[in-house]
């Protein structure tokens, strides 16, 4: 009897669970049916404000103070990312809109404060084709002594910037290349500022009639709609706010469609044509990789012109990039990479692979490595410049000695010629006397 009672209880529990599962499945089907009837795009647009943002710093109600810090013009507070709670994408778009304004602001500083001029690329560009540009000091190509070349990393940064995040959240000194430019000019360098992320022109994408799906088989169209519906639902769960943005396409800039291509182009058309005897390079993050690629493409030219390279948290890899042995040896002698590290500034840092020298930048923040290494980089350049001057002096002494030896040889040759001429003159005189006596 006890066994039958236990079996009866088990049977009742099983029946109850089956009914609950059936009810849950029924509710899920009803929920899915309800969601399929909701236009999630429209629902989410109601949650999210329009993606329309100010076009100037003044309209954003922000300005840079005397310390180069971005502050609200009314409250004096730093920039607030989470302007609207639970609207991450909208806040991100607002941040990006401010970033574009910051880019234009830095361009103005390069032109007005640093007195740099903009040079359009390609140099033979037509009116209609996409174009990029770099910045040069007035003496960049005519300075016969020193030239500084600045190459930033990848991402949204443009000419004159190391990190947009630092410009917005810290200050202009840490986030821009302006301190490097001003210091270089004070020490008599010409300056060239590269713009390796300006690779393409973005234009609105026009709908292509050939992509019309009405002729597709019904089954294929249904699968596509089902997939798109799932994406909408997933998007709603993740963001609450995916407004449709304008679709764009990228038109590559001729001979400048990648950071590596841009660096090579600027070398061929500007840096290599400068008169500077001593070229120095600062390359941050992906900029280091671009420089190594330049060396691979123009090895002899770069080695003969560049005196030293300062990298900051560079992401280059000499083996993956297949750099030659001579390049690896040159970098060991002429390059130093200031890397993110908890160690004090300039502390030697070991590398798993034999590469260029590595020193601590005194910070674990990747984007701060350039600014933290600022003074160390110029000391490093001065050391190599002094070494080059000593080498030139030694070569000059050798040349002087060679010239002195040549001069001595020329004097000896003149003496020999003079003696030969005197001997010849004496011989002629003797012959004349003998002939006269015979007569």
UniProtKB/TrEMBL annotation:
In this chain, composition skew of type Basic and acidic residues spans 217-249, 394-417
UniProt keyword annotation of Ribonucleoprotein present: no
Q: Name one GO molecular function term.
A: siRNA binding
From the UniProt entry, list the residue stretches annotated as the region Disordered: 204-249, 389-439
Tell me if Zinc is a UniProt keyword of this record.
no
Which intervals hold domain Arb2? 53-345
Give the CC-aspect GO terms. Answer: nucleus
Q: Name one GO biological process term.
A: regulatory ncRNA-mediated heterochromatin formation
* Entry keyword set: Signal
Annotated signal sequence range: 1-18
- Stored Pfam families: Arb2
Task: Check the record and name the InterPro entries matching this protein.
Answer: AB_hydrolase_fold, Arb2, Arb2_dom
Q: What is this protein called?
A: Arb2 domain-containing protein
């Amino acid at each position: 009897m006890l066994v039958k009672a236990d079996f009866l209880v088990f049977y009742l529990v099983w029946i109850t669970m089956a009914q609950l599962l059936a009810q849950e499945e029924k509710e899920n089907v009803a929920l899915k049916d309800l969601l399929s009837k909701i236009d999630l795009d429209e629902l989410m647009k109601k949650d999210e404000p329009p993606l329309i943002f100010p076009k100037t710093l003044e309209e954003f109600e922000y300005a840079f103070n005397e310390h180069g810090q971005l502050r609200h013009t009314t409250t004096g507070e730093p920039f607030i990312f989470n302007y609207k709670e639970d609207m991450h994408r909208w806040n991100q778009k607002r941040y990006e809109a401010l970033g574009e304004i910051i880019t234009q602001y830095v361009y103005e500083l390069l032109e007005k404060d640093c007195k740099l001029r903009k040079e359009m690329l390609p140099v033979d560009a037509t009116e209609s084709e996409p174009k990029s540009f770099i910045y040069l000091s007035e003496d960049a190509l005519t300075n016969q002594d020193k030239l500084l070349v600045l190459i930033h990393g990848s991402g949204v940064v443009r000419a004159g910037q190391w990190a947009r995040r630092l410009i917005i959240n810290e200050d202009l000194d840490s986030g821009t290349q302006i301190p490097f430019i001003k210091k270089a000019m004070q020490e008599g360098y010409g300056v060239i500022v590269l713009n390796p992320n300006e690779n393409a022109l973005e234009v609105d994408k026009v709908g292509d009639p050939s992509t019309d799906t009405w002729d597709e088989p019904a089954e294929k169209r249904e699968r596509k709609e089902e997939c798109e519906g799932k994406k909408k639902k997933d998007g709603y769960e993740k963001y609450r706010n995916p407004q449709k943005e304008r679709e764009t396409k990228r038109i590559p800039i001729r001979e400048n469609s990648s950071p590596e291509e841009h660096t090579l182009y600027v070398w061929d058309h500007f840096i290599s044509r400068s008169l500077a005897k001593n070229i120095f390079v600062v390359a941050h993050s992906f900029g280091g990789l671009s420089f190594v690629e330049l060396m691979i493409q123009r090895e002899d030219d770069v080695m003969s012109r560049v005196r030293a390279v300062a990298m900051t948290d560079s992401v280059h890899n000499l083996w993956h990039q297949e750099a030659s042995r001579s390049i690896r040896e040159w970098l060991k002698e002429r390059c130093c990479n200031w890397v993110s590290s908890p160690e004090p500034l300039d502390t030697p840092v070991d590398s798993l692979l034999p590469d260029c020298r590595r020193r601590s930048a005194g910070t674990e923040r990747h984007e701060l490595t350039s600014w933290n290494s600022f003074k160390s980089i110029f000391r490093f350049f001065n050391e190599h410049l002094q070494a080059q001057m000593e080498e030139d002096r030694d070569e000059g002494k050798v040349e002087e000695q060679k010239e002195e030896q040549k001069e001595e040889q020329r004097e000896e040759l003149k003496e020999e010629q003079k003696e030969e001429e005197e001997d010849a003159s004496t011989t002629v005189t003797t012959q004349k006397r003998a002939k006269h006596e015979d007569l």
